[in-house]
Amino acid sequence: MATCEITKDTLQETVSNNDIVLLDFWAKWCPPCRAFGPIFEKSSTRHPDIVFGKIDTEAQRELAAAFQISSIPTLMAFRGGIIVFSQPGALRGPDLEELIEAVRELDMSEVHADLAAQEAEVAL
């Protein structure tokens, strides 16, 4: 699967309807973004079961602000609709593959239990 453009109109549906979604926040003027783009694209062809979305921070300023993007590129990973990874900076190909495997191997029952514990702590 090739990468797809994500907008404020398609984000919620994309994240909600897919098990794993990787989002690359980028801009055309950003050299590290341009360097990471082909790595992200190549990985998307290796993992057709994952949605690889690109968010142009210039065109989608509202989304960039909502996710508090302060440095690009920033890569986010969602699993089951939950953000499980967010980090600025371009990754090398092997590092991106390692991240994908880590996201695949997450025990989502543990993630949900951790979230519930955090919410209970906030409620106190």
Automatic annotation (TrEMBL):
The lineage of its organism: Bacteria, Bacillati, Actinomycetota, Actinomycetes, Propionibacteriales. Residues 1-105 form the Thioredoxin domain. GO terms for cellular component: cytosol. One of its GO terms (molecular function) is protein-disulfide reductase activity. It comes from the Bacteria. This is Thioredoxin. PROSITE patterns: THIOREDOXIN_1 (PS00194), THIOREDOXIN_2 (PS51352). Pfam families: Thioredoxin. Transmembrane segments: none annotated. Keywords: Disulfide bond.
